Amino acid sequence: MPDYKRIFEREADRYHELVAYEDWRNHLLGAIDNVCTLRPELVAADIGAGTGRAALLLATRVGSVHAVEPSLAMREKGLALARAGGIGNVSFHEGGYESLPLPDGSVDLVFEGWSLLYFYRLSLPDWRKPVARAWQEMTRICKPSGVIFLAETLGTALERPVRPDFAVPLYDHLEKELGCSHKAISTDYRFQTARQAAELIGWFFGEETGRRAAERGSPVVPEWTGVWWKKTQ
Ligand SMILES: C[S@@+](CC[C@H](N)C(=O)[O-])C[C@H]1O[C@@H](n2cnc3c(N)ncnc32)[C@H](O)[C@@H]1O
């Protein structure tokens, strides 16, 4: 397995190069909008925001976005992207699921993408307490009648969505114990060339997934994403 801690702390540029090619049909924003109509009155948060790819997208549709991310390199990259794009309504905050640096009831939409599963995986096999803390923190910062919206992987370079074995306890927990609604969407990558697709996919997801991407011989690589959501009371 690639050294993700190292990637998130030292290779923010390459990480962003990869994710910038994801979801070329822009399905994620549509899926969020179906659950929580995006509009300028809303305040959003993106937890484990990385280089802010989702935060910067959300910022085009809501009033402001708080991007919370523990890695300095990721936050710096996100800030540079926001400045380069003239996007002034995203702020980056140091922090993580353990303790979110936002006040109680301050956010209408709490989004996370591909960071809760990473956080869960780091805490295996004793994931229940950290995940309960993460959910408690997301609920705490959410306004009454707000929405918590999660996006996590259902597979890369596969023909159909598949829950990775290690993720099944988390996904079951979200659905059966926390009562989240859910569905699968496609957030395919479209790289510039097939070679670039194989290289970047292999670098981040490991040899086997890189080989599957290479065998396709295409700049387009299927990515399946599960989305889970819950409205707060
Ligand atoms: C796969 S990346 C996803 C980044 C971003 N959400 C995106 O869509 O590109 C996982 C992110 O989780 C962050 N992370 C690591 N530990 C965390 C924690 N305790 N709380 C929140 N995020 C964390 C990493 O630094 C990394 O940026």
Write the layout of secondary structure elements.
Blueprint lengths: L3 H7 L1 H8 L7 H9 L7 E5 L5 H6 L5 E6 L2 H13 L5 E5 L12 E7 L2 H7 L5 H14 E15 L11 H10 L3 E6 L2 E2 L3 H12 L1 H10 L3 E2 L1 E9 L2
Parallel strand pairs: 1-2, 1-4, 2-3, 4-5
Antiparallel strand pairs: 5-9, 6-9, 7-8
Helix pairs in contact: 1-2, 9-10
The structure holds S-adenosylmethionine.
Description:
It is a single chain. The protein is α/β, with parallel strands linked by helices. It has one domain: Vaccinia Virus protein VP39 (Rossmann fold, 3-Layer(aba) Sandwich), CATH 3.40.50.150. Helix content is about 40%, strand content about 25%. The protein is built from 10 helices and 9 strands. The protein has helices at about 5-10, 10-20, 25-35, 55-60, 70-85, 115-120, 130-140, 170-175, 195-205, 205-215; strands at about 45, 65-70, 90-95, 105-115, 140-155, 180-185, 190, 220, 225-230. The chain has a 7-stranded mixed β-sheet. Helix 1 (about 5-10) packs across helix 2 (about 10-20) and helix 9 (about 195-205) runs antiparallel to helix 10. About 40% of the residues are buried. The model has no long low-confidence stretch (mean pLDDT about 95). Bound molecules: S-adenosylmethionine (SAM). S-adenosylmethionine binds next to helix 4 and helix 6.
